[in-house]
Amino acid sequence: MTLKVGVISETAEGERRVAIDPLVAKKFEKIGVSVLLEANAGKDAHFDDAMYADVEVIDSATKLSGQVDVLIKVQIPTVAEVDAMQNGSILIGTLLAHKYPDVVARLNEKKITSFAMELVPRIARAQSMDVLSSQAAVAGYKAAIMGADLAPGFFPMLTTAAGTIRPSKVIVIGVGVAGLQAIATAKRLGAIVEAYDVRPETKEQIESLGAKAIVLEISASGEGGYARELSDDERKQQQQELAEYIATADVLITTAAVPGRPAPKIIPEMTVDGMKSRAVIIDLAAESGGNCTLTQPGETMTHSNGVVIHAPLNVASQVPIHASEMYAKNIFNFLSPMIKEGELALDFDDEIIKTSLLTHEGEIKHEATRKQLEGEA
Amino acid sequence: MTLKVGVISETAEGERRVAIDPLVAKKFEKIGVSVLLEANAGKDAHFDDAMYADVEVIDSATKLSGQVDVLIKVQIPTVAEVDAMQNGSILIGTLLAHKYPDVVARLNEKKITSFAMELVPRIARAQSMDVLSSQAAVAGYKAAIMGADLAPGFFPMLTTAAGTIRPSKVIVIGVGVAGLQAIATAKRLGAIVEAYDVRPETKEQIESLGAKAIVLEISASGEGGYARELSDDERKQQQQELAEYIATADVLITTAAVPGRPAPKIIPEMTVDGMKSRAVIIDLAAESGGNCTLTQPGETMTHSNGVVIHAPLNVASQVPIHASEMYAKNIFNFLSPMIKEGELALDFDDEIIKTSLLTHEGEIKHEATRKQLEGEA
Amino acid sequence: MDFMIKASYFIAAGLFIYGLKKMSSPASARDGIVWAGVGMILATLATFFHESIHGLTNYLLIIIAIAIGGYLAWTSGKKVAMTDMPQMVALYNGMGGGAAAAIAAVELIQRSGMNFTEQALAVVGGLIGTIAFSGSLIAYAKLQGIMRKTIRFPMQQLLNASAFIITVILGLVIAFSGTDYGLGILFIFFLLALVFGVMMTVPIGGADMPVVISLFNALTGLAVGFEGYVLDNPAMMIAGTVVGSAGFLLTQLMAKAMNRPISNVLFSNFGDATGKAQDVSGSMKEIEASDVSVMMAFAQKVVIVPGYGMAVAQAQHKIWELVKQLQERNVTVKFAIHPVAGRMPGHMNVLLAEAGVPYDIIYDLDEINEEFATTDVTLVIGANDVVNPAARTDPNSPIFGMPILNADKSKNIIVIKRGKGKGFSGIENHLFFADNTRMLYGDAQAVASELVSTVKEV
Amino acid sequence: MDFMIKASYFIAAGLFIYGLKKMSSPASARDGIVWAGVGMILATLATFFHESIHGLTNYLLIIIAIAIGGYLAWTSGKKVAMTDMPQMVALYNGMGGGAAAAIAAVELIQRSGMNFTEQALAVVGGLIGTIAFSGSLIAYAKLQGIMRKTIRFPMQQLLNASAFIITVILGLVIAFSGTDYGLGILFIFFLLALVFGVMMTVPIGGADMPVVISLFNALTGLAVGFEGYVLDNPAMMIAGTVVGSAGFLLTQLMAKAMNRPISNVLFSNFGDATGKAQDVSGSMKEIEASDVSVMMAFAQKVVIVPGYGMAVAQAQHKIWELVKQLQERNVTVKFAIHPVAGRMPGHMNVLLAEAGVPYDIIYDLDEINEEFATTDVTLVIGANDVVNPAARTDPNSPIFGMPILNADKSKNIIVIKRGKGKGFSGIENHLFFADNTRMLYGDAQAVASELVSTVKEV
Amino acid sequence: MEGIIALYIFMLAAFTGYEVISKVPVILHTPLMSGSNFIHGIVLVGAMVALGHAGSKLEMLFGFIAVILAAGNAAGGYVVTERMLEMFKPSDKKESK
Amino acid sequence: MEGIIALYIFMLAAFTGYEVISKVPVILHTPLMSGSNFIHGIVLVGAMVALGHAGSKLEMLFGFIAVILAAGNAAGGYVVTERMLEMFKPSDKKESK
Ligand SMILES: NC(=O)c1ccc[n+]([C@@H]2O[C@H](COP(=O)([O-])OP(=O)(O)OC[C@H]3O[C@@H](n4cnc5c(N)ncnc54)[C@H](OP(=O)(O)O)[C@@H]3O)[C@@H](O)[C@H]2O)c1
Ligand SMILES: NC(=O)c1ccc[n+]([C@@H]2O[C@H](COP(=O)([O-])OP(=O)(O)OC[C@H]3O[C@@H](n4cnc5c(N)ncnc54)[C@H](OP(=O)(O)O)[C@@H]3O)[C@@H](O)[C@H]2O)c1
Ligand SMILES: NC(=O)c1ccc[n+]([C@@H]2O[C@H](COP(=O)([O-])OP(=O)(O)OC[C@H]3O[C@@H](n4cnc5c(N)ncnc54)[C@H](O)[C@@H]3O)[C@@H](O)[C@H]2O)c1
Ligand SMILES: NC(=O)c1ccc[n+]([C@@H]2O[C@H](COP(=O)([O-])OP(=O)(O)OC[C@H]3O[C@@H](n4cnc5c(N)ncnc54)[C@H](O)[C@@H]3O)[C@@H](O)[C@H]2O)c1
Fold first, then answer.
1. Is C310 helix (H, G, I), strand (E, B) or coil?
2. Could you identify which of B81, C132, C342, F53 might form a hypothetical disulfide with C52, taking C-beta atoms 3.0 to 4.6 angstroms apart as the criterion?
3. Is C354 in contact with B210 (Cβ distance < 8 A)?
4. Which sequence spans correspond to the domains of chain D?
């Protein structure tokens, strides 16, 4: 019997992505895995059922979940969706366990082996499975586009018969994957781009995109390519130094994040007060609370001085085609090495599997999540 | 007594521009003209009253209109606004007389000398007064940004660990001022851009931006840099040939227009049916009815096959800062040559004044408008 | 002693070659001339000990002659203006040719026991040297403005050819007649050669003179080489021949740089630039990319005016490369963008941004128009209407009243375009005919590449 | 007759120079050898009429000897594998040296009335020729695998030096003793020279052999030139000297390309590549930009692998210019973009798009990895991790399992980077040590400009 | 020949050899080495003369050896160079201008 | 000197001259012309010899003229060349490599 992999529609609000695109579906078929798809699961990402060749399309998510060995999702399933799954089957998705303890508990009860893609370690070999990177790239691009769209002025310089238009200045705070992509996109559009990150190595990276690095006196590089949290004093100093730069920005894109922690509040109200009335803030860190103290995640608000603060959630989902394609490719790269001749063969010693494993055989394998849940119990 | 020029808030819905920006206000002051500004007239364009140095700010539009020699507007005033003006004073704006016969009639009654900026002839000397060009440039840029924002995929190519994203194809129909700007902006963002216009000389212009020109067998260049209208047969042939190209587009931006006539319907429903479900149409011609038969001016609708048709009105107003700046500059370039030592000195033999003059001393000077009104009467 | 002299000659010959080699690269050129100079001094000093020099009178004469010739040439060479250099080269070269001819004359008058080969080479060297002598002097006179007219008449070439043939026949007679020739025939031979040198040079116009001078230079070299054989002096043979062959190649390169075959320069009487420049209507004057490169490389400030042609040619990347090179040489470079350059608002901005030109060296009309007066070179790339002074001066022009970039106010204007194509408004542009404007024809991208590579060589 | 022979020699000498000149440029190299060949045949045929050849026996012997030597060399040269070419060059060169030595021997045995200079040059030519002879044969034997061991022992250099000094002293004795020397001393002299040639070559390792062969080639040239003087044959003098001087320069260039001074090759016994090639570590070999340009200009297919270094150097515009130049020469050029090249997804795309590289020559890993095997030159620009074969081969490497661009599979790999800097993952890259990899050091932008200008000159 | 004249010839020839090589690209190093190896095959001419005027048996022997070796140098040098240069055959590629 | 040997020297020298010039940049054309003009000033050596062994008055006259002219060639050629080459002084500007 061949391995069955299933994909159901995402039910979270505003979610337009789908966990597998037609191309990856075909790749799965090629390695002897059969793919089951809930009808219209890819519709919002512009993948019609008809585009999935050789895939078994099933009307109901419940029916589908009940017969697959591996269920693949973009976001964490609801408890009901977990209930529909077979005991002991496998779940792969961006599970954000700490936010949904009840779902994790249910997964554990049903002895489901669940993998959280966001936990995949950031080692070279796993780059192709790194959903954080792929979705952040999408978000960074989109953030710059949003900035250009919301801004009441041009990005590029334009010399015309009706006067010369000066280019906009875009400042990017937090130069991770998303930040770099935002820099690149804003630069392309002709804006003057400056960027800041606590990690000093980002300076060269910013310059490698032709943008200007803002260098403060404070540094905060941590382990494994992530940033560490700053002390209160440090944060204050950072804020003040930055505020001066930010006052000159027409568009401010913030992406600063510290994994597993709320986003650092780098932009206090005072800084916003100092900005131009035409300025626009795109706070990509909204998902983890936002880098601006005024940010209301998911909302767009106008500050008293006219500054617009846009704090979109789930930005990648706004470019559903490519976000889905990349997500699906990540999943395939993650799952396919576990499949030997059409059979699952999990090597629990493998670093990638070990680290991304959330629940397995009734145990919560992810330290932090277990502590959180046990603490609760 | 110095000449008084007045600017009042635009009252049309969605209009964010203002007819004079702080820079031009200062220029007027420099040549001895005093500028009166309705309070908060520039607010939507992010020009606070405080930014206008040396300008007399007046609370009420009516009060203001009653004391200025020249009233400058972006859009045509309402009848009430005309009523507030002094008899025999001057009005400058984009008057689109054929759409608002009642206002024109009232202007005539009040013996107001009114200039319609859109009638300024397209001669070399008048390029700096050409509001059609300046606002079209803004619209073209914005159209490409809108396209990028509405598209469910990336514009540029991206080779990533999660697969390679192929660039989007953007097709621009109608390569006038707006079309060229849209081409340039979409190219900047990394899209593959193709463009089509009936005028053959646009081929070289398209290529001068690094984009590819679509060449059909049909040509329709008319006089004075404008296009002529096509015969029915020609239009059909054009549509069919174009449909094949358009089927490959991810974003379609249409800007085709024939001055003084409804926009040519180049994109029939059939063509839209042939497009990809992910495709987005930005119909910049919406103002004059749209290039697509499905277009509903001012609306965004989704066609049965998923294609989104966005038909924004008054696009320039969405980039209010620079659109206002350019508009103001145009006005200044138009008005300042008429001012000699702080006094108005109109030379009614001057080609520019002659051609743009709408009403003067109780006469409707613009041929077409007079005919239209007299026909009505 | 003899050995020492020979060794000195040997070393001098080596130094000449070494010096010439160094002179062929800009970085080492100055060392080159010094080394060659050392060789010259060495050879000259050694010659004072030459066995065949005899008699105090002769010694004295030698020293006096050197003093006179050397002093006059040295001082005149020192004080002449840089712009007059070419004619000085012609003058000194003519002297060299004359010297070779005079040597031949001495040997032929003396009938100093030459074998046939030697005698023949003495004659040939004498002929060539004499032609180079009188020809160079004419070239000098023309460039110096002493002789203003370019003399031409019908059948001129036929006459010249006849004169040349007669001279050659006389030469053959002398060469073949052992010691039996009379002084008379020798005299006529040299006279005819002198006359021929004059005749062949008078019809050539001033603009072609550098090529002609180079040719005479090569001829002098050859003559010196031949007389070297006569005098059994390998240093002269080598130095002369090296110069001869280098000179012929150089002549060819120079003619090629002017885009004309040498034969055309020498015989067609086509290149009369003196006549042309006086034409009142004005004319478009062409220029070579390499010369533009030198102009820009040594300028203080260069302003670049791009237009629609740059867009059509997609030359923006090349231009930016060029600018970076100029910047490396500390030239100040600015871009002047006209509000309606190109075919859409901001056309030039888009292209320059694509090429990566930073915003801070891009200026618009109002910002830069004052600066043209202090600009050394304005490089107009595929722009036309936006630099057309008619907009300021000609009320009947369709573009009258349009503000333009005052490129015409700068010291030098270089215009890159493909040919005589008009701009958008379809009118003539008087800027192209201005005295300080030079046209650099070609597709903007191709021309820009050429500029890039030639600037590198400066 | 004598004149005809001399003329033939003259023409031959001219053709040799002309041929060599043509051989120094890739486009004309093949014509060059043909012209040189024509010269050789002419000179050989003419020599049959040489006045000093007498006696039927001698004629017969000459013809037989030519037939034997010519036939054997021709056939062996024809059928040898391309990879064995270097040792064949060594072999034939040794034969030339031997011939020069044998001529010296004949002349010295014959005591044919030489003046001092001639005798001295005969001795020097004989010495040099003999060394080149035996040394070349050893080089041949080593490369051919006949002699596998590299013999080294303590005090070797001292011994070699002594042998050389004794040989030279013997030579001086012969040269200075007029016709008074005996056959015995002559015999010992040549024997010692033979032995010295062997001794100086045995300690040198296989990898250095090309340099050594080039040196022997120059020596043979010199020997031939000297014997040419002895035989009063200017063609031999010129050909020999030209080869001698060209050969010394070539030796130097080759040593430089290996990043070592010649002295090091000859005396330090350091460059034993036979031993080394088995050594896994290998060494990084540098290359000049101009050589890379030639390689690429004559390649069929070039693949460019950009990495983070290109981004840091902002070299994308230059690289694209380079590519356009190659395309003009009909070289197929493709960009290979690794999924994680640079520091963000799509980093390379952004830069290449900025430079204007069209999408259709940009390939991603899956599309292009098969193609490396058929690629002539892979140009790696500031990339490191993404072409590190350790990802395939070394399970302990932190990047093991990451798919990489198989640059190592292509025929030649050129790596541009500033120095020994590691990539993002901080590990060594064995690709840089591969036999077919050459390092082109420098900032990517600067190097790319250099490539652009040198490709133009090819 | 006079020694000093020989010196001139040596100098000029050496300079010529140096100039010809000085701008040569690396890929031509080996073919050029081989080509110049062929050119000193002109030693054949000398060997022929040496053997031609050889008197004693010993001289003849050495002369004979000289000719064999020299002929080998010339013939082998040519073949090998020709084969190496085959890869520079003018292909359909455009020549640089 | 034997004619054929002279021929060799002429050939080698001609080749040398050609080679030295062949890769020269355009801006060096004029200075090089001037430099080579100086080099044939070596005719001075010949003129000195000619005047030195002149016998008759006529010979002396021509010899005298020869030396004057030749000295002018050498001295003037040097000065002018030197001045032209002054602009290639290594300045603060970066040299092209
Ligand atoms: N910016 C706008 O918004 C806009 C809109 C519409 C019209 N216009 C008008 O367009 C004009 C713009 O002026 P401009 O000075 O930029 O351009 P222009 O006056 O149109 O002149 C362009 C020049 O470039 C040369 N050219 C064309 N292709 C070339 C190539 N491949 N390489 C080298 N040269 C090339 C042409 O001469 P050859 O053929 O001899 O090469 C031509 O004379 C103005 O008249 C303006 O009013 C502007
Ligand atoms: N693409 C992504 O999304 C992403 C994100 C994070 C990390 N990464 C990692 O980044 C790495 C990318 O690999 P890569 O091959 O592109 O780069 P790399 O492995 O980081 O190597 C870059 C090389 O470029 C050289 N270099 C730096 N500056 C230069 C300059 N100005 N001129 C010439 N050379 C220069 C450096 O050597 P010298 O110092 O000797 O010059 C260095 O070895 C991978 O390990 C990948 O995993 C990628
Ligand atoms: N090893 C790999 O293969 C691999 C894969 C993906 C990412 N990475 C690296 O990891 C890094 C982070 O990636 P990410 O985008 O997921 O990071 P992230 O989303 O966790 O954080 C975004 C950025 O915010 C910055 N930041 C945190 N606190 C800040 C503060 N107070 N002020 C300013 N900036 C602050 C961080 O330095 C980081 O650059 C990237 O730079 C990338 O190079 C490595
Ligand atoms: N002389 C000047 O100084 C000056 C000033 C401004 C504009 N212009 C020229 O005028 C031209 C038109 O300017 P605009 O942008 O205001 O034009 P527009 O807005 O009136 O029309 C836009 C474009 O639609 C095209 N079009 C019309 N019918 C079409 C059809 N059926 N199919 C396809 N395309 C069709 C037209 O050719 C035009 O290019 C520009 O190209 C510009 O060069 C000249």
1. helix
2. F53
3. yes
4. 2-267, 289-457
